[in-house]
Sequence to fold (159 residues):
Amino acid sequence: MTPWELEEVYIAIGKAIWHLQFLEDVLVTYVTMRLKVGRPITIHAAMEILARERRKTLGILFREAEAGGLIHGEIGNAFKLLVDERNWLVHRSMHECSDGLYRYQERQALLSRLDNLTEEAIRLKKALYEDVRAWLANLGVNVAEAEALGEEQFRRLRS
Fold:
């Protein structure tokens, strides 16, 4: 195995973890808004609740969302599989896959598994976002205006 091939594995692992964290952030925000924050509430109090909730793992957040009726059906099943894959990545992948890194086929299988995990995290994040969007619209929030504000803040960060 070349140094570049090992780096490719490390990059794929980092990418998967990063996207899992993005998904976790969308999920914790959704669970907090829907299940943890009573209205009316100040922004400061809401941010304190969110900070506490962000200490939870993806698995715990998923179970809370499922119990609260926020996640079910196909998305619920996909989340269960994703949490299992996340746990494999974080807790078992190094022990299960490190010897195979030196064999091309096994390394490619690992890279494919990591890519699938990344893509599924992105897909579920988008699905959750659509649920958040619909829920906010039902509350009377001008979602397009909120999205424009978010995009403006993002542009400022990039400049």
About this structure: The chain has a mean pLDDT of 94. Residues 3-158 form one domain. The longest helix spans residues 104-138. DSSP finds six helices and no strands in the chain.
